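Hi all, long-time lurker, first post. I run a small reading group and we've been trying to get comfortable going from sequence to structure in the token notation. Rather than ask abstract questions, I figured I'd post a concrete chain and ask someone more experienced to write out its structure so we can walk through it together at our next meeting. Sequence below, copied exactly:
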Amino acid sequence: MKKVNGQGDYFRIKEPKWSWEEIGGLTDAKERLREMVSLPLKLPDIFAKVELKPPSGIFLWGPPGGGKTILSEAAAKSADASYITVKAIEIISEPEEIERMYDTALELAPTVVFINEIDALAPNRKQQLPWSISHTRDAPLRLAPTETTKILYEQLDRMSSRKDVITIGGTYRPDVVDPQLLRKGRLEKKIYVPAPDYEGRIEIFRIHLKGTPLSKDVSLEDLAEKTEFYVGADIEGVVREAKIIAIREKGEEFDSLEARHFEEALRRIPPYLSPEIMKKYNETYEAECDHCYLF
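-- Answer (accepted) --
Happy to help. Here is the structure in token form:
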């Protein structure tokens, strides 16, 4: 990955650490990101040879804590690309930083730019917020002024002619995003990052428990059954709590994690998701056009 000194006041130039193998589940999302981000940035000459232009922007959406940030980082790492990350809420008050960020992306190219909670930068100002706060988190408390959104669009349009800078915009609120953000040449391709399924949860537990001694009464399959509405961050929290509980109890005599340690951890950490929230995400996904999720 290319290196530079310094970074913006509001965006970070980061060396990506995550790899695909370290991310449990999410098979479809990982495959789409390989196709739309990693391969085009790593093999630009091959794409040019077959006259295949990759999308310049990806709209990555799904429940909070589901892995959108680490997926974008893994895409950059697998392409050996530079990685710039920013939280939309932090750059709202400094719109000139958006242009500076993309100037930096061009300097470091090939580059993946990840804008987290991009709905704050490009809100649908006519939206009536149909997802009530009882179903999921509300829209951002601060929304970008119209002029700031315009600057973002200008920069996305500038990048649309490039093949070496790809923007990924992440959000857990796809319903409050301005449709203009998703038009061709901007974040035109969508990738849904769902809550992990049963097999995905087993894989996530296995990754976070690698090298940790487990008692014979611990079953990853049983843990996966009990964590239906847990996202990846929830499962990581359960494993962390189980370790703390066991160490507190056994001290220097710690030898392994037992099933009862996980039971206590599950009581401490409830799932973020619920059937009602999952219904909202599934309804949104089912209403989308299938071609939005293909190369």
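A couple of things your group might point at:
The domain at 12-195 is CATH 3.40.50.300 (Rossmann fold).
Residues 232-250 form the longest helix (19 residues).
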